[in-house]
Each structure stands twice: as structure tokens, then as C-alpha cells.
Amino acid sequence: MEIGEVVFNMVPLKAPDPNGIQAIFYQSHWEKIIPIVCQTIKTCFQHPQNITVINEVQLVLIPKIVNATNIK
Fold it and tell me: What digits encode the pLDDT tens for the residues 5-25?
């Protein structure tokens, strides 16, 4: 409940957080993502030494141009 209160007290279209997602995403999909969000937060409290994993990401560039030769 407490996590939900925080999510729904956030300004929906405020600048995105570091992962690029605005609060409106969490608010509009809350029923679907609540188990994932709550489990992630619970894991952070249970294993604080692993918190750096949250900041890791796999980035895949998907070219919009066939046979691109450079990135602009």
C-alpha cells in the first residue's frame, strides 16, 4: 500500500526518472506491474549489497536505416 501511495502521489508527466519512464506509466499500468515493483523493492531491502544491479542495463541499438554506416 505504501509503495502505491508514493506512485500515485508522483506528478504523472514530470520529467522522467533515470530509466526514462514517467510516473504516468507506473500509474496507468499499476495493476499489472505491482508484483514486479514490490518484489524489486523487497529484494533491495533484503540484499542491499546487490542494489547496483538495478543500475545495469542492456542497450541494443535498432537502426531505422537499412545498412546504416554511422550513428547520428
Answer: 988 898 888 876 666 788 888
